Amino acid sequence: MLENDTIAQVTETVSNDSTVQAMAETVQMLRDTPVSVWLPQLVKDYLVPLGIKIVVSILVLIIGRWIIKMIKNRLANGLLKKRADPTLHSFFSNLISVVLNFVLIVFIISILGINTSSLVALLASAGLAVGMALSGTLQNFAGGVIIILFRPFKVGDFISAQGQEGVVKEIQIFNTIVLTMDNKVIHIPNGILSTGVMTIFTKEETRRVDWTYSISYGDDYDKAKAVLLRLSNEDSRILKKPDPFVEIVDLNTSSVDIRMRVWVKSTDYWPVFFSMNEKVYKTLPKEGLHFPFPQVDVHLNPFAESDVTVEEKG
Question: What CA–CA distance (Å, rounded) separates 202 from 178?
Fold first, then answer.
């Protein structure tokens, strides 16, 4: 009995709904009216306007994309003429592209007849949920803005961050593109770049190069020091100020370790580092100096056959 009453109430509610009644009347009219009568009217009133809107939307999309591309190119040419930092060029180019494409999509939706105010309200209501879901992406966007504003590094700098080393090729909205020495492209999120530890090797004009060379015990240290200083003075890439530093840094088990420090331009760091290693390797033996190696000295006691003393070095 209760089920019958519920069904009756639902039936009465549906029958009293004006929208449902209108739909029912429309369906009944289409059934009673020949197709040749209502089909042309349907095409005239609905399909033709809808088709025109779709064609216009496609044209607007094509023209809009062309305009966006033209704006980006003019922006790039303007920044180049003003000799703006490539960092700003890359970032603003990506940012303007995203904003203009969003505006274009909203405009096309309005052409199709969709209420944009409702769409904006829907986007606003969904913004919080999307923001929480994309918190990492938004953090990367904020990191990109911080990098652009405070300029800790720029395009062309050689950096080390997040276990990666390379030259900064481009700073995008969400990522920074780094090209490694072996020609690998790495995308590092801007969020961790703006908050993490980073080493910038090319920030300063000069850098210090350090070497540790070892000679054998018994070799002439003064002569070794003079040879190292001579080699540094012969290299025009090594700066005269500050003075080159050559001193004993450690008396090791089988070697005397000498620390050598010089200052060079940042761009000459690796060429000087490798060439000096080659020069030292070829020069020290010619000067009567020896490169040490681990060794073991064995001492025999001639008065006791079983007594053998072993001294291990290295």
Answer: 14
pLDDT tens by residue, 226-279: 999 999 999 999 999 999 999 999 998 889 999 999 999 998 999 999 999 999
- Write down the pTM of the prediction: 0.54
Residues of the chain within CATH 1.10.287.1260 domain(s) are 38-133
- CATH 3.30.70.100 domain extents, the chain: 206-295
Q: Which two tokens stand for residue 80?
A: 């180049």
User: Which fold does the domain 38-133 belong to in CATH?
Assistant: Helix Hairpins (1.10.287)
Cα–Cα dist 111/8, whole Å: 44
Supply φ then ψ for residue 159, to 5 degrees.
-125, 165
CATH class given for the domain over 138-200:
mainly beta
| φ/ψ (deg, to 5) at 267 | -75, -20
Which of 157, 145, 56 is closest to 109 using CA atoms?
A: 56
Q: What are phi and psi of 178, to 5 degrees?
A: -120, 135
